[in-house]
Design goal:
Distance between the termini: 66 Å
Number of helices: 23
Strand content: 5-15%
Radius of gyration: 26 Å
Number of domains: 4
Structural class: alpha+beta
Helix content: 55-70%
Largest sheet: 4 strands, antiparallel
């Protein structure tokens, strides 16, 4: 991890940031401690006199990241969705990294497609355009399938991108180690864990079969969502380095002038983007985690079209229930219940005081609810909530951080469409709909049915398994064999179902 190559990469990073004027901006935006500031400036200072690098018309930070290569560009792209971390100004600067990078030649793209799909491009497509969008990992071409005449979007990985990313990510670990060493306070943010998460995300993005699978799953989940569209995957024209989706006509969500000219209702679109995101996160536990304007279109009929499925988020069913209860608790200003949910979920250590935690949560909610309706932010609420829960010993939960990060982006999209949007009023129906179906008596009944289905797989063996488990319990000196664990689990599950049914019946009598 700390070989000569990575040390040189560290020096080159500092030099490039200094030469582009990005070093000072990043240090200020991140509120870096003095030790990090001194080390960073010393690292880059000898190279400052080589002159400004890159196009002076481009803001300093994206100019530096672009000069450093694809991995840095992708890292900047992810940070552009985190104004809560890097600040609004720096996040705005880095938005140019999302979909406005120089493309590679069409001839190279055609060679990649032919090699991956083992056929000539002319055989598969009657048309294959110049690049229409280029990002850090891949670029997109518009094409027409030869035997159907269907218009499609063909995504092609950049040549040599896998090797470049592996080399740069290794250097990122060294940079994270240096930051942790010079600034012990930064360890609570777990810089190396952040890099590990980034590595996992990027490695998945470098296999377009995984993205195609995510797009297909997302399309299946949202097939009945009126007003929301996911393009169809053309599996026979997709592989590890090539992905083909149905072409999506429409206006990019960032082009407000064109949206207005087409007569679309921006208020309805803003509400739709926010509600769809919450519905997917809560109902399905599988959501688009990169919903910036460049990845959203408005179809001619007003539907919202999602694109680019390289970064998706997952939340398990139990965490979704906890998250929904937290949100609805804040919406209803029931801070005691929000505190109890944290304790019930085990997010906060049991030795902490529930009342004190509820009081701290009130300090999070009340200032936000005191704002003008158009200033209320769910993303800001979650950001403050993480700060408070950290003080009470709650460990970082990666899935909730990703959810909060995406919430920042989605709110930004919604407010760009409708600056007067009331986030709480729009979000409330989606949250309450989920609560009604998944929290309370109906949810208990559903859980019991699911548990019964699992136990039913044991069928006639249940009495025998229960007896074996009881015998094991009455003879503690005899170690339970690994093969007995299913028996014990089944018996405990049966007991849990009986107990739960007794509670339900007692409530009905």
């Amino acid at each position: 991890m700390r070989g000569p190559h990575n040390i040189w990469r560290l020096i080159r990073t500092g030099a490039t940031f200094e030469r582009t004027g990005a070093m000072r901006q990043v240090l200020e935006a991140m509120d870096a401690p003095q030790s990090v500031r001194v080390a960073a400036r010393l690292l880059g200072w000898p190279f400052k006199w080589l002159g400004v690098r890159g196009d002076p018309a481009v803001p300093p930070v994206p100019r530096a990241l672009t000069a450093l290569g694809p991995a840095y560009i992708k890292f900047g792209q992810i940070l552009s969705t985190r104004p809560d971390v890097v600040g609004d100004d720096l996040a705005l600067q880095m938005q140019v990294l999302q979909d406005k990078l120089p493309p590679f030649p069409q001839e190279i793209a055609r060679k990649v497609v032919a090699a991956e799909l083992e056929r000539s491009v002319g055989t598969m497509f009657t048309e294959f355009s110049e690049p229409i969008a280029a990002a850090s990992i891949a670029q997109v071409h518009r094409a027409r399938i030869a035997h159907t005449g269907q218009d499609v979007a063909v995504k092609v990985l950049r040549p040599g991108i896998e090797r470049a990313f592996r080399k740069d990510i290794d250097a990122f670990y060294l940079i994270a180690w240096v930051i942790e060493t010079l600034s012990p306070a930064s360890r609570r943010l777990k810089p190396r864990d952040v890099i590990a998460h980034f590595e996992g995300v990027v490695m998945r993005e470098l296999d377009l079969r995984i993205e195609a699978s995510a797009a297909a799953e997302f399309a299946a989940n949202t097939a009945k969502d009126a007003g929301f569209v996911v393009p169809t995957v053309e599996w026979f024209l997709s592989s590890r380095r090539v992905m083909t989706l149905g072409w999506a006509n429409g206006i990019t969500m960032s082009d407000l002038t064109a949206i207005d000219a087409a007569g679309h209702d921006r208020k309805a679109l803003a509400a739709g983007v926010l509600q769809m995101f919450l519905r997917h996160a809560l109902r399905d536990g599988f959501f688009h985690a990169d919903m910036h304007q460049g990845n959203l279109k408005v179809a001619p009929n007003g539907d919202i079209v999602a694109l680019d499925f390289g970064i998706m988020g997952r939340i398990d069913e139990y965490t979704r229930r906890v998250y929904a209860e937290i949100l609805i608790g804040f919406i209803r200003k029931d801070y005691r219940r929000v505190a109890e949910v944290h304790f019930e979920a085990g997010y906060v250590p049991a030795d902490r005081d529930v009342g004190e935690f509820a009081q701290a949560l009130r300090s999070v909610g009340e200032p936000i609810f005191g704002l003008n309706a158009t200033q209320v932010s769910m993303a800001r609420l979650l950001s403050y909530l993480f700060e408070v829960t950290e003080q009470f010993g709650m460990e970082t939960r990666t899935e909730l951080i990703l959810l909060q990060r995406t919430m920042v982006v989605v709110e930004g999209v919604a407010r760009s469409l409708d600056p007067e949007i009331n986030i709480w009023d729009v979000a409330r129906p989606a949250v309450e709909e989920y609560i009604g179906r998944n929290v309370g008596p109906k949810a208990i009944a559903t859980d019991l049915i699911k548990t019964a289905r699992v136990l039913a797989r044991f069928g006639p063996r249940l009495p025998q398994l229960a007896e074996a488990a009881l015998l094991a319990q009455t003879n503690p000196q005899s170690p339970v064999k690994p093969s007995r664990w299913p028996d014990r689990v089944a018996f405990m599950g049966l007991g849990a179902v009986i107990a739960a049914l007794a509670v339900v019946l007692a409530g009905l009598i």
